[in-house]
Structure formats: C-alpha cells, structure tokens
C-alpha cells in the first residue's frame, strides 16, 4: 500500500510515534494507503512551524500585494492539478470523478477571489471628539488557524477556510478526516511548490481525539474553523471556549425542499432528486425532507421515484456513473441503521432501502424514498447523511413554514413555486442560512454560506468573510507636544522643574 506522511514546515515528515492508519477505497472496499496516526506531539510540531511562519519575513514581512500574488498562484496551481486532486478525492471518498473535478475547478476560484481581497484590507481614521488626537484602526491577522475538515468534500471545504485565512495573513494547521487525508496532503505539497512559504500550510493526519482535540485545545492556535457533525463540532466549541478562542462552525442539516402545487413539477422533481441523491446524499445541505403540497403529493413522489430508478450507480471514475458509493464504512452502517429505524417508525418504503451489491464491490446503498412520514419521526429530524429522502405533505404556506422550521437545524432550504410573491414570503420566513428558489445546492465564493440554530456559527464565503480571520486594533496618537494631566497642575514630589539649576 502507498504510505503518506504529515506535511509540516514545507516537507513530509513521519508521525512522531511511527504509527499509521489504513484508509479504504469505498468503491473497492479495500484498504489502499496508510496515513499517519499522529498525536499531540505532531500537533505541537505543526503549530510551532505555523507560528514561526506567521512571524517570518517570508510571510509576515511581505506586502499585501505579494500575499495576493501568492493566493492567485495557488489558485492557478489548483486548477492545473485539478484532475490529479480529483482522482485522489475519488479514491478517498468515492464521489464521482466528474463531480470532484468540477469542485476542484471551482475551488481554484476561492483562492483567486480572496487573493483579490488580500490587498484591500484596510483600517480607517475615526473622527473622535478629541481634536488633538489622530485615531485610527488596523486590521491584523489572528495568527495560527486550526482547520478541521470532513470527508465529503475535503479540498472544497478546506478552501472555504484557507483562502480567507491566508488572504488575511494567517497561517494554518489542517487536520483532515482520517478517511480522506491523501488529497489534502498532496494539495499542501502543491501549494508549497507554487511558492507558499514553508510553515504557512501544515497538515497533520489522524483520529479526532488524538489530533483534532489537541489542535482545538492548543494555546497557540488563535482560532478553529470546523466543518463536520454536531457532536464533534460541539466538542471543538467547548475546547475553544475554555481558552476564549473564536470559532467558525459549519455543522449538520436536515434541509427541506418545499414543493407547491403551482411549481413546475418536472423541474422540481429533478431538483429534489439532485438535492438528495447527488453525492449519495453526503452533503451538509442535502434536501433530505421533501415537503410537498397535498394536491401534488402523489405526482411528485412518482416523478422522484422514477428518477431514482434511473440513476446509475457504480465505478465513480466512469463518466456514465451518476452516484458512487458511501464514503466510509461507519457511515454505510449508519445509513442502513437509519433506514431500519424509519421502517420501525412506520414509514413506507416507496423505493430503495437496500445495499446494492450489483453496483460494485464497495459500499453502495440504493437511492431511498420514504412516504407516510410525519415530521416528528426520528428519520425526519436526525441527519442521515446518505441517499435517503422523507416525503412529508403540507396544506398551505403557513403549514409549510411550520414543518420546515420544526427542526434543530437550519442550513439550507429549497422553495419550488411559480408565485414570485410566495417565493419571497417563504424566503423571509424560513430559518435557514441559504434559501434556493426553483434551484438547489448552488454555492459561490461570492455568497455567504452558513447555518441557523444547530447548523453552525459564522459564515464562509463572501467578501465580509475575511473579517472572521482578522482582529481590529485601535491606535490613539496625541498630536500635542505634551500630555495634559487629568489632575491639573501638580508638582510631583522629589522632581525638580524643568530647567531649574541643580
């Protein structure tokens, strides 16, 4: 098997303890590589390298214009190596090559976008009442940023954090998922080859408790940016809170796709199917709840099931494959357990619900559709993170909003309607960080992304996002030749007046 090492201070280094973990190709179902099983000692080494780089002339000493050039060159390098990186991600997580390639091509744009902002970070002069003072602010980087990324879209979700962090002048220690580390390691080497100075980007692989927790606890890590499940995100939040470090958390979702009777049902069915079955449902914004107006319930179910039946599952590298395998064995087992739970709750299986051995030797589960679901069922409330759709009927706008918002999550929501007024009313009433009208799962480096409620804290994307990786310093400058004492004229005891003879 291939063996990979951590990337620290511009070079690959073996883990301090010498231990490695097997990583499995979800299509073949077999281990294909070894990644480091790192420890707190490796985290210490990476954080120290990042801290040195943060203060170094090669990074801290360059101009904002030069930093912008670094980001643009990094974007070009990602685009140039998109095919190679996409193949690495397919081996790691089983998503289709065509999806990963498109993601990597878009990922390059994040580095270009934030590179364009790097030399536009400014402070401001403030018109304070004290006319004899010049008062201004400086926007300064935070320091070392700890970044913990998930297995479903590793390099894309890394860029959402890394691009603004680097543009602001920070350095990074990245902990990728133990299931999908190899693409991140290769990316770090490509970034270094593209001119990013040693120590600015570091990657430490391993298990959450052995690497992620020490990273979140580390006193020299100024901020944690995390994407993943609610349980792990909560643990990160608690660790950061103990030392008053800021966080950005993008967590789970149970997003509703809401279809009204006046919608174009064919278009809506395509959007609903794409929202839950693309990526095998392994997306934080997967539209896992289909809320459909009663008048068109049966027609929508028929359309969505027909699409599900037509999806081709198999080798994710094959151009005709629509859906690849589940990314990890634990997740595969969890999805099957959730399907069994839904059946126990009384949901009706309209399609799928079983492993699909015919698609290949790996971790395949049929696209699954449940009807006869009430919003209070666990299958309608808990994030499955797989190709499992729950269909829930509603009566009118008020009922749709009640059901949509009756969730611990609030990451995304879709609205399908031909009524423009209704679209805007629903967008205003939905408790979700992103609302898509007659479309779904659209994202851009230009547009903020994040969640309400248990779906997270903070936003990623958009020009304002760079502020999350900056801190403000206020500077007061007295323009007089002396400082006016608040005590009035006072002769300090034992001090002679200026100019008096000794």
Automatic annotation (TrEMBL):
SUPFAM superfamilies: ALDH-like. It comes from Azospirillum himalayense. Keywords: Oxidoreductase. Gene3D superfamilies: Aldehyde Dehydrogenase, Chain A, domain 1, Aldehyde Dehydrogenase, Chain A, domain 2. The active site is at residue 250. Residues 20-475 form the Aldehyde dehydrogenase domain. It comes from the Bacteria. This is Aldehyde dehydrogenase. Belongs to the aldehyde dehydrogenase family.
